[in-house]
Design a protein that fits this description.
Number of helices: 23
Helix content: 40-55%
Shape: rod-shaped
Strand content: 5-15%
Number of strands: 26
Distance between the termini: 141 Å
Radius of gyration: 55 Å
Strand order of the largest sheet: 10-9-11-12-13-16-17-18
Structural class: alpha/beta
Length: about 850
Amino acid sequence: MEPRVWFAHFWGVTKFLVICAFYAHVVNGDHSPFTRYYKPGDFILGGLFSFYREVNGTCSALNTLRHTFGRIEAMIYAIEKINNDSNILQNVTLGYSIYDDCGQESFGLASSLHMLGLHDTCDARTNEPPIVGIIGPEYTKVTIAANHLFSFYEVPHISASASSDELSDRTRFPYFSRLVPSDNFQIGAIIDIIEHFKWKYVSAVYSNEDYGEHGIGELIDRSLKNDKFCLGATVAISESATMSEVDRAIRQISRRADVEVIVLFSLPEIAQKFLDGMARADLIGNYTMICSDAIIALRSNQVYFNRLKGSILINPYSSQRLPSFDKHIKEVGKAAMDDINSTNNTFIRALVNGCNGHNKNRNESEKMCAELNQTQLSDYSLHTWAAIVIDAVNVIAHALNSTRSEKTDGVNLYNQILNTSFYGERGLIKFMENGDFPGSYIIENIVQDGDKCTSRVVGRWDTQNETRLSFTGDVQWPFDHDPVAICSQPCPAGMVMKEHGDNPLCCWECFECLDYQITSDNGTMCLECPDFYWPDTTRTKCELVDPKFMRIGHPAAVFFILLSTLGLIMSVLTSVVYIYHRNHTLIKASGREVMCIIMIGVVLSYIMVFFFVSEPKNGVCGVARVGLIMSFTWTYAPLLVKVFRINRIFHSAQKSPQKPKYIETSYQILFSIFLISFQLVISIMWITIKEPAAVKENPVLYQREVTLRCNFQQVEIITSSIYNIILIGLCCYYAIRTRKLPDNFKETKFIGVSVYITLSIFVVFIPSYFVVTEPVTRSAILCGAVVGNASTTLVCLFLSKLYAVYFIVDRNLPSKRTSGIPVAHSSNTPVTTVENSSNREQMFADVSTENVSVM
């Protein structure tokens, strides 16, 4: 058996059970089980609307006039207008068969069976023309249930308000189309609004039925793929929810004080329950809501609409008034109230009868009267729902007009519906391939207008525009600040986000990075700065640290520059005086050539200070590395030669009258150059192994400090210093050996003082330099070492002699050459003389003039 035939048999068996079960369900109601308004015609259009709503198991409560009666009357108005239009469906009359579906699936399905004439088990109507197309129902759940029946019998079905994206499936609903955008588009509009206001974390409330579940399900799916916002608390409220259940849902929503935005995707009845709960919790005005299109129905109830102040409303309907239709409603309402017999409209008669007290429920009677009285108000308008129903009727009329020359069956008519395009009450009417209506919404803001709230247009969302969302006005919020919608506060500078909770994209905890780390672009990782870089104040990028070194303007640098300048001046003056007194007996006796070499070492030491306080560069570092060591060597290499010569002369004179070898001036210069050259070779070797360069260092790990220094090597300084220490040590040794020379020969004592001080400088300098990492202190140590050495040498070896030249009386200097010289002297031993001879005289000729006291 083919599936279609099988289903027909199955349906024939089950329809009786469904209808009879429904009759048993509604038989206790205050009105006929099926409220119907029928008008014959050549083609009959069906209508399913929720005139009543279910309360306590019976379909007896009247829906708002705006909510349903306006749609019913809009359908009748549109059909009558077409029947009176000679430009369309000429010689053809449209009729209608309108039923109440009570907003319930079972009731709607039973009404659909009656509408299609499939109710032969209960009340057959075989003479009526078949239904060619159906408009309605309003609710998604009723639409889905009824459309299965309509599709099976190939009856085109146009919905004026069912927006669930579930209905976009052509395989399940092959004859369905609608004049409202799918919730798929509505969710896109909601997401664009959230992103426009940069809300990161929003809550959601939805009705626990097809409309709300599919809408919020789509929102959840898209939020998981979206990196710009997250959904927080998401709660469902059912139609049967108790006050305690609603209150529990609201407590879940209000748990986070930093989330002031709620997506309200709900049927109006359930939205009312939610708003009642918000009022009980005294939370009205604490939140702004993004309301789905179904919430538009609350406009007819000012109490609930006022509670939405400051919210955003997504309106798929036209906001343009329909003056001719508004006039029609007023006339129909007035005529019915004046004389109920003036109308055959079942729904109007039920409304008037209810107002006249024919309803057992007094509250319902008062409500009906209030609804009727509203139709007479000057500002009363039903344009919101009327326009879309009028356009739906015109769609079927245009499709019928196109199929008049063909067979008017459901398949052909539905194809014509999809191809229909015209300008209706809402603008261009055109369907997508799957029967959906293109996504287009008016964005409205609910604002205070006197003692009530109204809505005003602030923007538009349209899939046809390049920028889908555009705002044309400012949004007024329910509070005096922009809504806050975050799960976690942004982490301060220097802190990163660690995932926390069910929404790691939006909820996090902040953890502080280490001082030398920055945060990554997305704020989730701590990244170390490269060497010589340090985080900036924002902790988002690394900046080059300005290196520390001894700068010219530093107080220590100024101090040493002044000392060096003074030392150089004293050195120059001393050299000038030496040259001036170069033939003085005392100057000649000190060894002028060797002293000149020593003076070069003193000057070199003072000059090196200027390199030590300069910014380290490759050239400066080359001079500094060689000059530091050579300044000491240049001073103490010739001094060693000098003191060694003195030692040989005086000690060999005690043993032999023979003149020692290699004590001539030329040999002294040669020996001095050799000792200096040896150190120079060592220094050249080290700068060859490692070229001089200015290097940056982080002396203290993970601290914001970078030093710039010359690349002195520890082993280089130690090896070179060992050589200088050897020279100084030998000078010290020979200074001690010559300590017992005659009292009038005290130069070796001054040499000893100079050597002792310099040796002390080395003892302090070497360990201090390697222990200290601070660049200014290091440079100060270098400057202090060379200045101390140079000044000691200048005072002890040079200035002491100049003092003797000018201020000491030469009482011990003979007026002419004596026949002998003292070779030994002590306070207890007489002076021993050597007999005059040419060899001995020549032997002591170079030192005879040194028998002068310098103090």
